[in-house]
Design brief:
12% strand, 248 residues, 3 domains, Alpha-Beta Plaits, Bact_polysacc_biosynth/exp, 4-stranded antiparallel beta sheet, alpha+beta, 10 helices
């Protein structure tokens, strides 16, 4: 015989385990908030833009084939920017030390069908991030002439540090929201898991459902207040009966 669970039973399970679900959700949110605000190091980002072209043709102001060639070379420029030929010079110029891995800090990319290269740098110090981004662009502009004989490089936008820079990560509110959702799902899952492994019989319906035995009778339960009230009334009746006998 297949067992079916009605929506009412599901709601009753959630209601019975509501305290557990809320506790797990609150704990997850608190832990996420503590980690986001006090443990994780804020990371700032600075970006600069570079426009790279081949040597200009003297025959025409606009040459479609040259533009297509430049677009195809964008991926090559991206690789060159993150190569030791560029980053080692940047590291020496800024005196960052050998332990600093600029490859992990720098992200190079470009928009589709665009000759503009975006250089983004992430660092716990916003000033250092801006210095690395600008120095990388400057070194690339100088060294690309030797590497690929390209002398038409323009820096479109330099990285600047705002007055009150905001970190790009972590995002505490987003992390807390995600933790609440995850905690809620974990709490609901644990509630149904506990209910599934709970084999105790609590109602007469459980006897019929689990044991398959018919219920012949039910013993009503009486709380303590009713028992005390019944004893008090019984005592009063006895006292009254004795008083009537004495009066006779």
């Amino acid at each position: 015989m297949e067992e079916t669970i009605s929506l009412k039973e599901l709601l009753e399970t959630l209601k019975k385990r509501l305290g557990l679900i809320l506790t797990i959700t609150c704990i997850a949110a608190i832990i996420s908030g503590i980690v986001s605000f006090f443990i994780l190091t804020p990371i700032y980002q600075a970006s600069t833009q570079i426009l790279v072209n081949q040597n200009k043709s003297e025959q025409a102001v606009y040459n479609y084939s040259e533009v297509q060639t430049n677009l195809q070379l964008i991926n090559t420029y991206n690789v060159i920017i993150k190569s030791p030929a560029i980053l080692d010079i940047v590291k020496d110029n800024l005196k960052l030390g050998e332990t600093v891995n600029l490859n992990e800090k720098i992200t190079v990319g470009s928009e589709k069908d665009s000759q503009v290269v975006n250089v983004s740098v992430q660092d716990p110090d916003p000033v250092v991030a801006a210095r690395i981004a600008n120095e990388t662009a400057s070194v690339f502009k100088e060294e690309i002439v030797k590497i690929m004989n390209v002398d038409n490089v323009n820096i479109l936008a330099k990285a600047e540090v705002k007055e009150n820079p905001e970190p790009i990560k972590p995002r505490p509110l987003l992390n807390i929201a995600i933790a609440i959702v995850v905690g809620l799902m974990a709490g609901v899952g644990l509630a149904f898991l506990l209910e599934y492994f709970d084999n105790t019989i609590k109602t007469e319906q459980d006897i019929d459902r689990i044991l398959g035995l018919p219920v012949l009778g039910v013993i009503a339960t009486i709380d303590n207040d009713k028992i005390i009230e019944m004893k008090t009334k019984r005592t009063e009746r006895r006292t009254r009966a004795r008083g009537e006998k004495v009066g006779i």
